[in-house]
Amino acid sequence: MEYTALHTLLWLLNAFTLTTQELVKLNVSPKITAECGKQVTLNCEVSSSPNGLSIKQMAWIQNQTSLCSVDKEGKIKPHSRSDFHCEYKHGQLSLIFKRVRPLESGNSKPYTCKLQSNRGASDAKTIVEVQECCWSVEGVWNEGRPTCTFRHVYPDGDVHWFHGSHNLSDGSVKQHTTKQVHNGWLTIHSYLEHNLSGVPYNCSLKSTASGRYIASSLVENPDLHAQRARAQIHKTRARNGVGSQRPMWTSFFVLISLAVTLK
After folding, report:
1. Is the Signal keyword given for this protein (predicted)?
2. What is the pTM of this model?
3. Could you give all domains of the chain from N- to C-terminal order, each with its CATH number?
C-alpha cells in the first residue's frame, strides 16, 4: 500500500508539473524575414490566460546575452545599444530593430524569448533571415572613367557593366572590382579602365543568391552630358524661333491685304 500511495503521489506531482507547464506558453514567429533597410519587430507574447499569472521576468536573449528584459513590475531594463529598443504591454515583449545586421541573423544565431512566472518557466525561439540587399548605389565619372559603388550589400553580388545594350562583362573592356566587409555588409567598388564614347554606361549588381539584378545606376561622361544639353537648348530655341515667325508673317500679309482693299 505504501508503494502504491507513493507511486500515486509521484504521478500526481508529474501531472501537476505538466499541467503547469502547459498553462504558460510563449507565442513567437518561428522565422522572420528582414526586408532590406526596413525596421524589424520580434514579438513574444504569453499565450496562457492572464488571470492568476504573475510574470517574474521576461527577456529576449541571443548568444546568452540579454538584449531586452522586463521585471515583475513591467519595467524594461535599459540597455546601451542604440540599434534597437524594447516595448512591453499586456504580456507581450517586443524587440524592435531599426535594421537587422547580417551578423545577427541566420540559423546559427536564433533569438530566444524566456519567461519566468508563478506558473513555471518557458522559452521559444525565432530566427531572423536578412533578404538579399543593396541599400544604395552611386554612379559617378571619376578621373575620366565610369565608377560605381554599391553599399550595404548582402549576401554578395557581381557587378555587370553595360554600354548601351552591349554587356561589357564579356571582357571587351577591363573592369576592376574590390569588396570590403563591415558588420557583415559588403561595400563593392567597381570601375572600367577605358572610356567608350556615345551612350551612357550602366552598372548593375547581380545577386549571387537569386541571380537577380538588385541595384543599378547610369553613369555618363559629364562632357557628353553637357554637349547633349547644349544641343537640346539649340533645338528648343530653333523650334521656338520658327514658331515666333509665323504670327509676324501672318500680320504682314493682313496689313498688305488691308492696304489693297482700301485702295
Report:
1. yes
2. 0.69
3. 21-130 (2.60.40.10), 133-222 (2.60.40.10)
